[in-house]
Write a structure and sequence with these properties.
The complex is a heterodimer of chains A (129) and B (168). Chain A is globular. In chain A, 23% of the residues lie in helices and 33% in strands. Chain A is of the alpha+beta class and 129 residues long. Chain B has 168 residues and is α+β, with helices and mostly antiparallel strands. Chain B has 6 helices and 5 strands. Classes of the chains: A alpha+beta (129), B alpha+beta (168). At the A-B interface, helix 1 of A face helix 2 of B.
């Protein structure tokens, strides 16, 4: 939504809706494990997500292209990039991925946006004092 | 008005060794298709396959099989059929592949297509026919083929086609 204000005339609001604006969608996800001490590196994380896709969507799903752009090993937070058409498949397989090496785990999806810049600001972490 | 619509896929099972065709049964083909769909499309595909999927008709002599899929997901399940490389029956693995000839909305349209297809095949093979007796048999088989006696007509038609092919 974009606001266009003129000084002399009363405020004019202009709403811009962008459909299929970006070919990619970006997801910020965090992996929460039952056992706090296990560590994964980026390659293991990607392989783990691919096994999730494979169990839900088969070989075709496991062939979906997605990238791990950034990964923080200490907090297990990753920034994933996926083509917009495959977003639903990736997100649903992250939701249904329940166990890592026979231990319970969960993916928390923190932010999703078609624009990478939008992931910098998070209104959930906003401190209003 | 409110009707459950399905798509019927007319497929031909191609095997290298014709005698192995006779071992096929519909349970084996159903298992093979479900396994291929589960491998290719995962849990999502296996779930779609479990509703209203069945093998409606199987002719072991010619290897014609009718598969029924629900209308909303038949394309996805159709895309898994080329990944079938073998069918397992009675402890034997038969290497084969499924070739889809026609997609119809009802069994009737598929039957009509099959009759036309069989006659076309026979017209291609008749010139190569060796004996007059064969030709006579084939002609009577085609003439007796009608929709009312559907299955028997198929088998008759297909069996004579089968004999003719063996003659070659």
């Amino acid at each position: 939504m974009k606001q266009v204000e003129e000084k002399e005339e009363p405020s004019v609001y202009q709403r811009v809706v962008l459909k299929n604006a970006s070919p990619y969608h970006y997801l910020k996800v965090r992996l929460v494990l039952e056992d706090e001490s296990t560590r994964l590196n980026a390659v293991e994380l990607k392989y783990f997500i691919i096994t999730g896709l494979k169990s839900l969507y088969g070989e075709v799903g496991a062939a979906l292209n997605f990238d791990v752009l950034k990964y923080d090993e200490d907090t297990l937070t990753a920034l994933l990039r996926v083509y917009s058409r495959s977003l639903v498949k990736l997100w649903s397989s992250l939701t249904l991925l329940g166990s890592y090496q026979n231990k319970a785990c969960a993916f928390r999806v923190l932010q999703v946006s078609p624009f990478l810049l939008a992931l910098t600001g998070n209104s959930r972490d906003l401190q209003l004092d | 008005m409110v009707r459950l619509k399905s798509r019927y896929l007319l497929c031909e099972v191609n095997v290298s060794d014709r005698s192995q065709l006779l071992l096929l049964d519909d349970r084996a083909i159903m298992v093979a298709v479900k396994a291929a769909v589960a491998r290719t499309h995962g849990d999502y595909g296996a779930a779609m396959c479990s509703i209203r999927f069945c093998v409606k008709y199987l002719n072991a002599h010619t290897g014609i099989v009718f598969l029924r899929f629900p209308k909303r997901c038949y394309k996805l399940l159709w895309s898994a059929l080329p990944f079938i490389t073998s069918i397992e029956t009675r402890g034997q693995k038969i290497p084969c592949f499924l070739n889809c000839l026609h997609v119809g909305g009802t069994i009737r349209t598929c039957q009509k297509f099959l009759i036309r297809y069989n006659t076309q095949q026979l017209h291609r093979m008749l010139p190569k026919c060796k004996s007059e007796e064969e030709k006579q048999q084939v002609r009577t088989a085609i003439l007796s083929c009608s929709l009312t006696e559907s299955k028997e007509a198929f088998e008759e038609d297909s069996e004579s086609e089968e004999e003719e092919e063996e003659e070659e």
